[in-house]
Amino acid sequence: xxxxxxxxxxxxxxxxxxxxxxxxxxxxxxxxxxxxxxxxxxxxxxxxxxxxxxxxxxxxxxxxxxxxxxxxxxxxxxxxxxxxxxxxxxxxxxxxxxxxxxxxxxxxxxxxxxxxxxxxxxxxxxxxxxx
Length: 131
Description:
Elements: E1 2-4, E2 7-8, E3 19-26, E4 32-38, E5 40-47, E6 50-57, H1 68-77, E7 82-90, H2 93-106
């Protein structure tokens, strides 16, 4: 389960958001992971013989980050040993990228063994950021 403001986050809360920035805490060793997840994904549907692009809800409910070490810990310990919190709901991908990188830099995730993060990447343009 994802938490937002200490309350469970559900499909009803998605509204017009494109995604979110999150923190996952390993309750066994207190290590954390900062990342982002899209709430929507494209899908191709055939309607009357024509292909049409549609948006469907992503796999965010079952998502535990892209870090392989963290994913392995989830398999070993079980998902109940991890707390997943949404830090920011985002209305566009540019803001989502920026807020993820800002959190990672502010927390100095690359300088500490307290984080599973092993990569920070992306290009941020001021015109994409709408806070």
